[in-house]
Write a structure and sequence with these properties.
The chain is of the alpha/beta class. The protein has helices spanning about 45-50, 75-85, 105-115, 120-135, 150-160, 180-195, 210-215, 235-240, 245-260; strands spanning about 1-15, 15-30, 35, 60-65, 70, 90, 170-175, 200-205, 220-225, 225-230. The strands form 2 sheets. Strands 6-7-8-3-9-10 form a 6-stranded mixed β-sheet, sandwiched between helices. It is globular. The protein binds adenosine-5'-diphosphate (ADP) and magnesium ion.
């Protein structure tokens, strides 16, 4: 459904050029659960932003991103608006902290439904309640303000928001960062369940390789904007080829042990 071909992204800010993505080629099949794994600064979020046309204006982008056969990089603004939310949707990095403090949870979702699905009033209200239920939040949550939710509940609400317009492809950028280990596992379980119940394709972005290995059917390891290695979780965990893949595995296990011990 998505075919990324030789994508490069170079940021241009204040006279400085940063090559964030350097020749990535990657195909995402319908119904797949792909993990993009790499250390901070390896270009993961940049890649996600490119898929949604969300890069700053003066950014140099080359290559192709074919979504159902059409190049996203050559879409008009109005085509892009139709794509975002309804076809490809993003749970952005730090989504837990991006809710507006003075707005109830239901209002956040209703606003997306108003603007992007043309649903209003009772229709939007019912749909918001259904979406919150789909991510395992009980009905009372919708009347709460963001600060009245736990980190895990906020992450669930952020996922409900991204699902508001029934996208075919969900991008989840570090959705478990800053959550404790049990809650991390619950969020991954939720994503796995939604993949099946909503017939979603998912791209999970994380710096935690063992975590991604628990749910993804394919992992892509990024290093300095390039693809270092890709394969099934079994291949990458049991027989990593690239030194950076080995580093990522060692690093995460070490951190786990440090926390547990
Ligand atoms: P990751 O999500 O893997 O941590 P990012 O895609 O956020 O990596 O960043 C990749 C590189 O691009 C980093 O060197 C980062 O500093 C740089 N970068 C990210 N966003 C911008 C921006 N808006 N302007 C300039 N450089 C950026
Ligand atoms: Mg990032």
């Amino acid at each position: 459904m998505l075919d990324i071909r030789d994508l490069t992204v170079r940021y241009n800010s204040m006279g400085r050029v940063t090559a964030a993505v350097n020749g990535i080629s990657l195909s995402i099949e319908k119904g797949s659960f792909t993990g993009i794994v790499g250390e901070s600064g390896s270009g993961k979020s940049t890649l996600m932003a490119a898929l949604l046309g969300l890069l700053p204006q003066r950014t140099e982008i080359t290559g192709e991103i074919l979504y159902k056969g059409t190049d996203i990089l050559r879409m008009s603004d109005s085509e892009m608006r139709d794509l975002r939310w309804k076809e490809i949707s993003l749970v952005p990095q730090g989504a837990q902290n991006s809710f507006t403090p003075v707005m109830k949870i239901k209002r956040h979702i209703e606003e997306v439904l108003n603007v992007h699905s043309g649903k209003f009033g009772e229709d939007a209200e019912k749909e918001a309640a259904r979406l919150l239920e789909d991510v395992g939040l009980d009905a009372g949550i919708k009347e709460r303000y963001p600060h009245e939710l736990s980190g895990g509940q906020k992450q669930r609400a952020a996922i409900a928001l991204a699902l508001a317009c029934s996208p075919a492809l969900l991008l989840a950028d570090e959705p478990t960062t800053a959550l404790d280990v049990i809650i991390q596992a619950e969020i991954l379980e939720l994503l796995s369940g939604l993949r099946k119940s909503k017939d979603l394709s998912i791209i999970l972005v994380t710096h935690d390789l063992p975590l991604a290995a628990m749910v993804c059917d394919r992992l892509v390891v990024m290093k300095d904007g390039r693809m270092a290695e890709s394969g099934t979780p079994h291949q990458l965990v049991n027989d990593p080829q690239h030194p950076h893949t080995k580093d990522l595995i060692r690093e995460m296990f070490w951190q786990r042990n440090k926390k547990d011990g």
